[in-house]
Design goal:
This protein has 72 residues and is an all-alpha fold. The chain has three helices and no strands. Helix 1 runs antiparallel to helix 2 (33-49).
Length: 72
């Protein structure tokens, strides 16, 4: 089973956006700062791991490598 389903550009964007959203959520104290932190943490973790559960559910793969299941 292939666990990595995010390509390098996808992962890089997620990591950068995750860090930005975490910084925004931690730096400011608006009513929804926790929401920015949660979204930022999810983006950062999925970017670092290379695995996105939502991608898996919908069959999305941005790595450029597609696995084919064969019955044997």
């Amino acid at each position: 089973m292939q666990w990595v389903n995010e390509g390098p550009w996808d992962r890089g964007i997620r990591i950068v956006l995750g860090i930005i959203l975490l910084a925004v959520g931690l730096a400011y104290q608006p009513a929804l700062a926790w929401l920015w932190d949660v979204i930022g943490a999810i983006l950062l973790l999925t970017g670092l791991s290379g695995f996105c559960l939502v991608y898996r559910i919908f069959g999305i793969n941005t790595t450029g490598v597609h696995s084919h299941r064969t019955s044997g």
